[in-house]
TrEMBL record, chain A:
The keyword Zinc-finger does not apply. The keyword Cytoplasm applies. This is Cytoplasmic tRNA 2-thiolation protein 1. Residues 54-232 form the tRNA(Ile)-lysidine/2-thiocytidine synthase N-terminal domain. Its main location: cytoplasm. ATP binds at residues 57-59, 63, 89, 167, 172. Residues 330-350 are annotated as: Disordered. It comes from the Eukaryota. GO terms for cellular component: cytosolic tRNA wobble base thiouridylase complex; mitochondrion. It comes from Collybia nuda. InterPro entries: CTU1-like_ATP-bd, CTU1_C, Ncs6/Tuc1/Ctu1, Rossmann-like_a/b/a_fold, TilS/TtcA_N, tRNA_thiolation_TtcA_Ctu1. Belongs to the TtcA family. CTU1/NCS6/ATPBD3 subfamily.
UniProtKB/TrEMBL annotation, chain B:
Pfam families: Urm1. Its main location: cytoplasm. Belongs to the URM1 family. Acts as a sulfur carrier required for 2-thiolation of mcm(5)S(2)U at tRNA wobble positions of cytosolic tRNA(Lys), tRNA(Glu) and tRNA(Gln). Serves as sulfur donor in tRNA 2-thiolation reaction by being thiocarboxylated (-COSH) at its C-terminus by the MOCS3 homolog UBA4. The sulfur is then transferred to tRNA to form 2-thiolation of mcm(5)S(2)U. Prior mcm(5) tRNA modification by the elongator complex is required for 2-thiolation. Also acts as a ubiquitin-like protein (UBL) that is covalently conjugated via an isopeptide bond to lysine residues of target proteins such as AHP1. The modification 1-thioglycine is found at residue 123. There is a cross-link at residue 123 (Glycyl lysine isopeptide (Gly-Lys) (interchain with K-? in acceptor proteins)). The gene is URM1. Residues 40-49 have a biased composition (Pro residues). GO terms for biological process: protein urmylation; tRNA thio-modification; tRNA wobble uridine modification. It is found in: Cytoplasm. This is Ubiquitin-related modifier 1.
Length: 371, 123
């Protein structure tokens, strides 16, 4: 078979087929269109302002590694004027997070960006290893999800950043749309697809890779020889999400536009107000898989730690109290919580999370700089 | 019987299924059974006479079966599905997306390098 030439420059040899368009393009044109599409997403959604301090939520995995590289590239190429930081959360998972953090530390050197690592251990006094030892493997993702979300906001506040960007890609968003449909969670659909969210007192969060296909992110990392870590979390299996993922990949194999089509469906859903009202009640269940929808119901602050909350106590404080009182699983359901309350008042000497001060200007920590 | 030498490489965590080894050099026959059988056909017996075996030049589909039968150490369903790689695994032949090379039908040449990358591991 004679080598095909690139559909864009008509000179170099085509190296990949774009899933979104079917176009066959060369390596250099691929870099250019991939980066330019992310740039267009950023400018069309007006994600940043000149001088913004932006933290990249960095796990060491492919998405956040490519995101850090592309953000640095675009910031320099288009003079966004951003101060970029890497923010990593150390959940305390031996053999998984410790290794991936080594990757993030190398990225810090390679990309010349300041890095802040905040650990569950320093924030909550519990590592995921210790939590799993107490709660088993069934609900551990609940703890991890609640703790990570709050840790990211707190880490961002320490860095005094205006904005957190995460590596969620088109496949992730399509997967979340599918899961919300399958769970009947119609009210969440629209918000899950929104590129940027901000509630009162929270730090803006956005997803510059919202329209970037996973295949292209991996190809980009491969052709650029970026250094990323790829091992499944040893505690992870969220079976439901796994099935949604496999289903999505099957759809994509049959028709590559399926991913963007699903995102568009999520965006186009308009939910009638009366339907939203009934959903709002159910939404009190805080264990959403969608990162965005929390803000909607978080109007108060936690009486114990100052973080946004829809109840007197935020979810992390509730879970932590359960752990500390040796009733770990009672923090998870409303029923369990009532049982814990009935069991007696909160002991005075209970370990708590340091009080949360929403971002106010100056960094509250010294940032680890390059050696 | 002539053979071809290949180099294969894994990325994105796929190496975990292959004894955690990132790259392998291997030789496969240049002509292989059309049904992708990678082990010798059993010798003929009186009631099961040897059927003539249909053959084809070794292609990537055959390579995938060879890898499953001889290199894969665990959880075959995470690698192979319906006689091809599982959706979500990217394949590059000499650094070119295999979708441009005819995917499984690409006929392997001596010295080819084939890379398999999983996209399914967390971001
Ligand atoms: Zn080109
Ligand atoms: Zn709290």
């Amino acid at each position: 078979m004679a080598p095909r030439t690139c559909a864009l420059c008509s000179t170099a040899k085509a190296m990949l087929k774009r899933p979104k368009t079917g176009q066959q393009i060369c390596r250099e044109c691929f870099f250019y269109v991939f980066e330019t599409e992310v740039h267009n997403t950023i400018t069309q959604s007006k994600l940043f302002r000149l001088g913004d301090r932006v933290a990249i939520g960095a796990s060491g995995g492919k998405d956040s590694t490519v995101l850090a590289y592309v953000m640095k590239t675009l910031n320099e190429r288009h003079n966004y004027g951003l101060d970029l930081f890497l923010l990593s959360i150390d959940e305390g998972i031996t053999g998984y997070r410790d290794d991936s953090l080594e990757t993030v530390k190398r990225n810090q050197q390679q990309y010349d960006m300041p890095l802040k690592i905040l650990s569950y251990d320093e924030l909550y006094g519990w590592t995921m290893d210790a939590i799993v030892e107490q709660v088993g493997r069934k609900n551990n993702c609940t703890f991890c999800g609640v703790f990570r979300r709050q840790a990211l906001d707190r880490g961002a506040a320490m860095l005094a950043v205006d904005h957190i960007v995460t590596g969620h890609n088109a496949d992730d968003i399509a997967e979340t749309v599918l899961m919300n449909i399958m769970r009947g969670d119609i009210a969440r659909l629209g918000r899950c697809t929104s590129i940027c969210t901000q509630g009162e007192d929270t730090i803006r969060r956005s997803k510059p890779f919202k329209y970037a296909y996973e295949k292209e992110i991996v190809m980009y990392a491969y052709f650029k020889k970026l250094d990323y870590f790829s091992t499944e979390c040893i505690y992870s299996p969220d079976a439901y999400r796994g099935h949604a993922r496999a289903f999505l990949k099957d759809l994509e194999a049959a028709r590559p536009s399926a991913i963007i089509d699903i995102i568009h469906s999520g965006e186009a859903f308009e939910v009638r107000e009366d339907v939203k009202a009934t959903q709002r009640v159910q939404r009190k269940d805080p264990f959403s898989l969608c990162w965005n929808d929390w803000f909607m119901c978080l109007s108060e602050t936690c009486q114990r730690c100052g973080y946004m909350s829809s109840n007197e106590l935020c979810k992390a404080c509730t879970l932590l109290e359960g752990l500390e009182r040796g009733m770990a699983n009672s923090g998870i359901t409303d029923r369990g919580r009532k049982k814990m309350e009935a069991d007696g008042p909160t002991p005075n000497n209970l370990r708590t999370i340091p009080f949360y001060n929403p971002p106010s200007g100056n960094p509250a920590v010294t940032i680890e700089t390059l050696a | 019987m002539s053979t071809i030498s290949l180099k294969i490489e894994f990325g994105g965590g796929l190496e975990l299924l292959f004894a955690n080894q990132r790259s392998y050099s291997l030789s496969i026959p240049a002509i292989v059974p059309t049904n992708n059988r990678t082990t010798p056909t059993p010798p003929p017996t009186p009631d099961q006479p040897q059927e003539p075996v249909e053959t084809k030049p070794a292609d990537v589909t055959y390579l995938i079966h060879h890898m499953r039968d001889h290199l894969l150490k665990e959880r075959e369903e995470l690698f192979i599905e319906d006689d091809t790689v599982r959706p979500g695994i990217l394949v590059l032949i000499n650094d070119v997306d295999w979708e441009l090379e005819g995917e499984g039908e690409y006929v392997l040449k001596d010295g080819d390098e084939v890379v398999f990358i999983s996209t399914l591991h967390g971001g």
